[in-house]
């Protein structure tokens, strides 16, 4: 069943990331252990635009993958809630494709679905859209560990 939206404070309660590396602004929908939809608003004030590239700002592809991984991390962390303090570790990226540049003013809609899950490992498939245009897609693997196990 889909849950209500998560705002930035709820996201910060789930992810360890903070400025300037917290790249998720809002979660629109969560279906526990199945799928999630998140939003990242890209502004001209992002630090990385200073050097990538001066006069022609383009969001780095690796940060698009990080946005996708953080949204997937919210899903895994929210699903694992109640089992101590789980931490989600990205373990792999496969089949990453970049379809068009992301620039200031774009709103990224990040859709992630669970492909397979065998605790503590997760495999997820994600895509990022701007309006209805696909800009990035990838498969990710992650491991969820309880803080006490580390």
Total of helices: 2
CATH architecture label name: Roll
CA-atom Rg in angstroms? 15 Å
How helix-rich are the residues, as a percent range? 10-25%
Low-confidence stretches: none
Rounded mean pLDDT is 93
CATH-assigned fold name: Thiol Ester Dehydrase, Chain A
Largest sheet: 7 strands, antiparallel
What is the name of the CATH class?
Alpha Beta
Strand order across the largest sheet: 1-2-3-5-6-7-4
Q: Output the CATH homologous superfamily.
A: Hotdog Thioesterase
The CA-CA distance between the termini, in Å, is 31 Å
What is the β-strand count?
Answer: 7
Structural class: alpha+beta
Count of folded domains: 1
Beta-strand residue percentage: 35-45%
N-to-C SSE string, H for helix and E for strand: EHEEHEEEE
Shape: globular
Describe the structure.
By secondary structure, the protein is an alpha+beta fold. It has one domain: Thiol Ester Dehydrase, Chain A (Roll). It has helices at residues 8-14, 61-80; strands at 2-3, 26-31, 35-41, 86-98, 107-118, 121-130, 133-146. It has a 7-stranded antiparallel sheet with strand order 1-2-3-5-6-7-4, covered by helices on one side. The radius of gyration is 15 Å and the shape is globular. The model has no long low-confidence stretch (mean pLDDT 93).
């Amino acid at each position: 069943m889909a849950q209500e939206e998560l705002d930035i404070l709820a996201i910060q309660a789930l992810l360890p990331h903070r400025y300037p590396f917290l790249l998720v602004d809002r979660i629109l929908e969560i279906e526990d252990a199945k799928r999630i939809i998140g939003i990242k608003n890209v502004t001209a004030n992002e630090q990385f635009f200073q050097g990538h590239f001066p006069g022609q700002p383009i969001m780095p592809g690796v940060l698009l993958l990080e946005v996708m991984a953080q949204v997937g991390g919210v899903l895994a962390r929210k699903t694992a809630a109640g089992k101590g303090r789980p931490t989600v570790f990205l373990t792999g990226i496969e089949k990453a494709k970049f379809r068009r540049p992301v620039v200031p003013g774009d709103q990224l809609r990040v859709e992630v679905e669970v492909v397979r899950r065998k605790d503590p490992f997760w495999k997820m498939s994600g895509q990022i859209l701007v309006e209805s245009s696909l800009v990035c897609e990838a498969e990710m693997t992650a491991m969820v560990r309880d803080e006490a196990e580390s």
